[in-house]
Amino acid sequence: MTSPRLDTQEPETAPRTLTIESLRARLARVLDLVAREGAFRYRLIGTAAALLRGVPLVPGDVDFLAGARGDVDTFARALGAYRCLTPPTWMPSAWQYYAAFEVDGLKIEASTVERPSDSPFLETLGRGPWEHFSTIAAGDTRVAVVALELRLATELRRGRKEHADLLIHWMRDQGCDPRLLENALHAQGIDEHTRSSVLSAVIG
């Protein structure tokens, strides 16, 4: 999820290299605080979702896709003791209701993405993230994480080849859902040649 362009604050300290262990610890802490505040319908998306699955990527922040604006408000109340980078704000140009906080030098964001979509195969729009996900342990917490197939399609659409190559390598070794990947690539408008090359690289 790309943060909206607005007058926001940035973390006061440069983010340290985020390991999977430190990501698990932060997620467990944040989601525990949010659970105490109220219901929170979300999916972990972006590079942090890939790292939590074991892909060797280094996120610059942590992105929660929220199901509704009330979920963003719950997130913001729960993190009220931390430095607020952006209070809950509606961003009409981005179709997002967005908030961000700094937790131990790391930006953690929650946002709706309200642009309409009929596709069930996109990472942040429509039914895709709510239908295609799994839960992964972070301490005693189970984190709802978007399907990696949807994440790879996003990276390819954004032209981030280095990230895409790491995802392809991981999926080739660990497995994936080929049909879901093909549908996600098509939904993102990836050209036929690239779709064929990616599927061949992943499936073998």
From TrEMBL:
Listed SUPFAM superfamilies: Nucleotidyltransferase
InterPro entries: NT_sf
Protein name per the record: Nucleotidyltransferase
Species the sequence originates in: Pararhodospirillum oryzae
